[in-house]
Amino acid sequence: MSNYDFIVPIGPQHPALKEPETFLLMMSGEKIKGMNVRLGYNHRGIEKACEGQTYIQDLYLIERVCGICSHSHASCFAQAVEEIAGLELPKRALYIRTLIGELERIHSHLLWLGVAGHEIGFDTLLMYTWRDREIVMDILALLTGNRVNYSINTIGGVRRDITTEQIPQILKAIDTLEERTKYYAKVATEDTTITARLSGIGLLSHDNVLKLGVVGPTARASGVKRDVRKDDPYAAYGEIDFNVITDDHCDVYGRTLVRVGELMESYKIIRQVLAKLPEGPITVKAPRKIPVGQAVSRYEAPRGEDLHYVKSNGTDKPDRVKVRAPTLANVQAVAEMLKDRYLADMPIVVAAIDPCFSCTDRMTSISTADKDDKTFMSWPKLRTYSIEWYSRQGVDFSDLNKKFKAPGI
Amino acid sequence: MSNEDNIKQQLIEKFSALSDKIIVKRARRIFAEVSLADFPQVFDFAIKKLNFSILTAITGLDEGTVFGVIYHLSTENGIMLNLHTTTPRDNPLINTVTNYFPAADAYERELVDLLGIPVEGLPQGNRYPLPDSWPANQYPLRKDWKGQMPVNKEESK
Amino acid sequence: MVNTLFHIFIFPGFLFACVSGLAAEYIDRKLYAKMQNRIGPPWFQPVADCIKLFAKEVIIPQQADSRIFTFVPVLAFAAVLTSFFYIPLWNVKTLSSFNGDLIVVLYLLTIPTLTFFLGGWYARSVFSMIGAARSIIQLFAYEIPLFISILAVAMLADTLSLSEITVFYSKHLWLILINLPGFVVAIIALIGKLEKAPFDTPEAETEIVAGSFTEYSGRPLAFFKLAIDMELVAGSSLLAAIFLPFGLNIHPVPGFMLYLIKVLFVVALISVSRTIFARLRIDQMINFCWKYVAPIAFLQLVLDLFVKGLIR
Amino acid sequence: MRWPGRMINQVLQSLFKKPATSSYPFVKAEMPEKYRGKLNYHPESCIGCMICVKDCPTGAITIKKLADKKFQCEIDLTRCIYCAQCVDSCPKKALESTKEFELAGLNKSKLKVIFNAETCGNSEAKA
């Protein structure tokens, strides 16, 4: 496969990528011929670390798998542990957990809308969507005490209650957000410069989605009607009616429509949750030592289906915790979407699956024994190390016009 | 006869060896113990006949004397079948499922890197999730692996 | 002798160009921020950027051709600076004018784009080579419509010297309406020349880091940034001189104010377009230019021919 | 109606609106009421049961027994992740979260906050 002239390293550090991962693009002219994905830079050993701590402490570790979808991972983990311990959660706790989950989906989708605008060079959309995202961040800070890592979950329920005077504040915020989202839906569909940059790229046909196991809005934009909140209802989703937004554009434009549609659905869900918020306690007493057992729990994170597998051995520390983040399922499809596309499409296609690579890698690369901690690299040493590292990846800057081979191809 | 029991019944009819090894833990969750020998037939039967068309994840476990591998299969409407197989610890070997699910190579590379279970038939490609400079045959997820564990202060006192 | 030194260093020359370039950049960034509901930079931000860049270490890539790499930014800076002498700023008289200085000014304003190409190509890094190739591809798309529309206007005035063009048009003020399509084409071409938002594919931040400027740092980058700012002022005053030639021979002080307002108007137009348009891909940009901008330029040419027949 | 530059009216309106951003270090930013910021410790109500030390995910809090009924609590702000699990687990409500969030410091030693019974009766931090 040497039909390429040179390699563009969209390397671990690149303005288009929010987190470290490497896409070595095999280019001829402006067209992408092939792609070599390398993940694993953001690997923090969370699964191994979970085995060394108690369940309560693990909750705060699992929550930091990802910055934006922290509540998804915490709820998924808490659900699995509660299933093993056989705890029957009070209804109010389930409703509050759903409320915070939907608020997080709003904040994540608004963030994505801004990043998509930035990737296609339209910073005004970034500035406006992120200004409106502040409304939902303030509501979350009001309810849970922190803007990002909410830590509202505990094993057996939630830690904070929603007081009666907070509800009108939430409803007012939701009304302004809904009116703003309608405006962004109009802009995203009618601004020809945006639609020109979004439609027709990152094509993923219906059966490719099934073959590659793609999840979340990326799958729903190709007409695959799969949403864990509907298929495998958890928390309070069984008692709330909402519809799953699908689209059949199969491209980045379709994903934008699906995410904006999901924003509107989230507002509907939040209004129902607040209307039907039952009275009662918010937690149930959870044992410190969880009995032997195993459980698989699934959660519809803003990026797709998130899966946690927990195995307990009767002590207060889990025996095994497995986290499969939605991005790990979606990243395989990026190589498929970028075949024979332009280099200019690469950032928006990668951003369209809304990658969260800190979720995907979730393990630590523990410092190897031979290098002691105190070695600080001087500037020239760092320069030679990076040149040597890149040449090992097959990207040789010394002479660009000679063809060079990429590993693994 | 809910859907889950229906599936359990079909599995037991096809594979008599599984008769006491399948548990329907709760709605939409079926756990099954399958020996390594007849795993391929059960896997193929589940995908083709019982339309478990999506492989959501593959989990690797260190169970002391053996390595456990769980394949989480799910259908379009949310029912999940978790096939658990074991492979001996001294020379572990499982064969790949990338012929059914091309995207499964990331999950299988995790088994190779973190637990040291070689996967036969895995297509060549970058290693995941450990960095290239990771020392050879160090497998962090094994129980007997003594790396610098981030043990919190309370225990070390 | 002292008079020309004053002209070269102070008024339409070095000092005025730099100060007006930095002021134009400040106004552009402040408008851009205000339109995005942000506070925006303080007034001294562009000056601070320049001083910081001048103080920074100059890193020349090992495989780059260091002579071209360092000379090319100075060439861009010098080209834009000399174009200031031929543009009638606030009244008809320019420093030196001869028949054909319109062609010289157009040529001088094209040199910076060529220097972006040379700087990017000889930095031998993947990102800057792609950026350099893109800026050249883009050059053909917007340069030809610009030349056609401006030469059509010059042809109507029957001369190729800028000052005579402005004298002719200040006499027939109603001709400004005829030249409106040319003004639209020229604005779009100026946006392309300065590589501002809809046409900033050559330095697309999220695709190729900073295009041809990826490998630049320190003084060369400062020269490039200053050259682009001054080109903004030079381009706007050229457009103001040709397409908005009213009030050119009134008393100097209000005349200069009127000139500043015209330049501000063009800079405001450019920053509004930078705010409301997404960045076009290189193929979309070329389609847009040849499908819409070039026909308008030809329309302008036909219009001018027609009107020339009428009034001559 | 599809034409480029759809946001032009919104963009021009905000020319005359107040900016949404505030120049933070010069304008004070206020956190909501029950914000989980820096911890505060009341030595008089602490009974030294060490549950908070056991439950802390990062081992940031240590309690020393100076004399009976007198305890000294040391919180290492570099390890603390402000999850307030210790505030929840404490049976005697000896710990509480404050709204203070500007905790960046130049030298690490200042970040070891020691709440001492004798020196600060009202648990003022001797940092």
Plain-language structure description:
The complex is a heterotetramer of chains A (409), B (157), C (312) and D (127). Chain A folds into 2 domains: 6-38, no CATH class; 46-360, Orthogonal Bundle (Cytochrome-c3 Hydrogenase, chain B). Chain A has 15 helices and 8 strands. Chain A has helices spanning 46-50, 55-63, 70-85, 91-119, 123-144, 166-190, 192-198, 206-212, 216-220, 228-231, 252-275, 326-337, 346-352, 357-361, 379-392; strands spanning 6-10, 22-28, 31-38, 153-154, 157-158, 293-301, 304-312, 318-324. The longest helix of chain A has 29 residues, at 91-119. By secondary structure, chain B is of the alpha/beta class. Chain B has one domain (3-120): Beta Polymerase, domain 2, CATH 3.30.460. Chain B is built from 4 helices and 7 strands; from the N terminus they run αββαββββαβα. Chain B has helices at residues 3-14, 39-48, 105-115, 153-156, and strands at 22-26, 29-33, 54-63, 66-74, 80-88, 94-95, 119-120. In chain B, a hairpin with a 5-residue loop joins β4 (66-74) and β5 (80-88). The termini of chain B are far apart. Chain C has one domain (2-311). Helix content of chain C is 72%, strand content 0%. Chain C contains 13 helices and no strands. In chain C, α9 runs antiparallel to α13 (282-311). Chain D is α+β, with helices and mostly antiparallel strands and 127 residues long. Chain D has a single domain (32-127), classed as Alpha-Beta Plaits (2-Layer Sandwich). Helix content of chain D is 13%, strand content 19%. In chain D, the strands form 2 sheets. A 3-stranded antiparallel β-sheet of chain D has the order 2-3-5, with no helix packed on it. Chain D has a two-stranded antiparallel sheet with strand order 1-4. In chain D, a hairpin with a 2-residue loop joins β2 and β3 (70-76). Classes of the chains: A alpha+beta (409), B alpha/beta (157), C mainly alpha (312), D alpha+beta (127).
